[in-house]
Amino acid sequence: MLLLFQVLLPLSVQAQQAVATPKPVSIQVDFSKEKGEMKPIWAWWGYDEPNYTYMKDGKKLLSEIADLSPVPVYVRAHSLLVTDEGPRAALKWGSTNAYTEDKRGRPVYDWTVIDQIFDTYVERGMKPFAQIGFMPKALSTKPEPYRHNWKPGAEYSDIYLGWAYPPKDYKKWAELVYQWVRHSVDRYGKEEVESWYWELWNEPNIGYWQGTTEEYIKLYDYTADAVKRALPTARIGGPETTGPGWDKAADFLRTFLDHVVSGKNYATGKTGAPLDFITFHAKGSPKVVNGVVQMNMGAQLRDIDKGFEIVASYPQLKNLPIVIGESDPEGCAACSEADYPHNAYRNGTMYSSYTAASFARKYELADHHGVNLLGAVTWGFEFEDQPWFAGFRDMATNGVDKPVLNVFRMFGMMQGNRVEVSSNSIPASANGNLTASANKKSGLAYDFKEVRDASVRGERTDVNALAAKDKSSATVMVWNYHDDNVEAPAAPVEVSMKGLPTDQVLLHHYRIDKENSNSYEAWKEMGSPQNPSAEQIAALEKAGQLQLLTSPQWVKTKDGKATVRMQLPRQGVSLLRLTW
């Protein structure tokens, strides 16, 4: 007989709930059936504005991100080679002035700002996912106009100016890359730089690259050769295209991989090019429907699915690590809720439940295609000195963590190997009444293929789980996700576990919902202040941390089995952590 434990309610309340509450979602976890390593694919972050790295809130957030992970976190930033009148940050902009030229056209290298950025990472035990780009003004084939002044609401295409063009001299570009890698080795040591990943450019199949596909391939050949000459054991990859679910992006990715395998190298004249890992992007596509934000997780998963399919079609490349260089619910991190109403999901728990559910499906898609998924970069950092909870896609606002960051704190506790999980699901009807078709489907859980093909729509919610186990702990992450951001009753959930290796375990139950681990709801309860007091900020900082739903409790198991029952609110996420 399974050991059951739950919050005890008065008998009359239990009787009322028995009438109103639908059949519990049943989640079965078998810790004895391992599915593969619980790779920390989530321990990757990125952002457009590199100069935010060493600012006050940037440093604070990077410290928190480093602290939540048991492994080194990799960080990717745009514009590390961009020129400006002085290093300065703005939305979708940054600069380092690493490369200029004197009056005679001779290179002048200045690594001061890049060192400041990379020092901030390395001091925290983090590692650069070093993006080689964009084009310094002195090397651009179209240097004027060079700097954009984009603001939310402006046309996105307005940003693709001189920094996005090919070099006027590929050998000078290659020498810049060589000097950068050599400088990194001198500053941080060979062993440290060997642990980094170097990648070229960003989304070269759209406006970020104002050259042709062949010109990008030429740039890659010169870049990869320079990296390897500077440090033969360095890791170089690409092409960081947009989502392969788009035909033109898929064509670009295939053309690049064909060249890597059998093309004539522009830099060396040999066949092929060095490639240590493969990168592409994957994004969802939310919109507002009848005044309600509706996500589209399926769009993001289809990008991932197609990218994995393409990589798996190359026998020579199938086992290479894959890094999804940007993997998010939608595209523009710097586009606030005020100008883009579909981004209203970002401050609250919809972003956190989406993150839990989508990362679980990334593991399953990698298993399905038999590819080596190394990382999935969350393109969301922080925006310095912006209004509180402005609706940017960020992890924190003015130094206060948002609910989504707590999902990553949960992931940081999930170690060892992934284990088998099975479940059913329940209709998502807000009034609890089940239609005939919903009743028919209510015994079926969403699998990754269904979410990929149709997202999470209609009457069923995606109540599901991801679980892992190592030598002395086991974890189960449970989410209640739906694409539509509407109010609905909490789902009754029953998590039945077996394969626990001891007669007694210590349970910690963490929760993200409107009442727990949620600085946004705390801020609204304060009256949404734009100038909060020191006391209010301290309260918001506390509310932004990951919180326990109940006190830790010792649980006696029977034949290695135990069951946890809970009420999980819509867009809520729970983590059950069992230790022994």
UniProtKB/TrEMBL annotation:
Alphabetically ordered keywords of this record: Glycosidase, Hydrolase, Signal
Top-level taxon of the source organism: Bacteria
Domain Glycosyl hydrolases family 39 N-terminal catalytic positions: 26-543
Signal peptide per UniProt: 1-15
Gene3D superfamilies per record: Glycosidases, Glycosyl hydrolase domain, family 39
InterPro entries to which the protein is assigned, alphabetical: GH (IPR017853), GH39_cat (IPR049166), Glyco_hydro_39 (IPR000514), Glycosyl_Hydrolase_39 (IPR051923)
Record flagged with keyword Signal: yes
Pfam families listed in its UniProt record: Glyco_hydro_39
Coiled-coil residue spans: none
Family statement: Belongs to the glycosyl hydrolase 39 family.
Protein name, as recorded: Beta-xylosidase
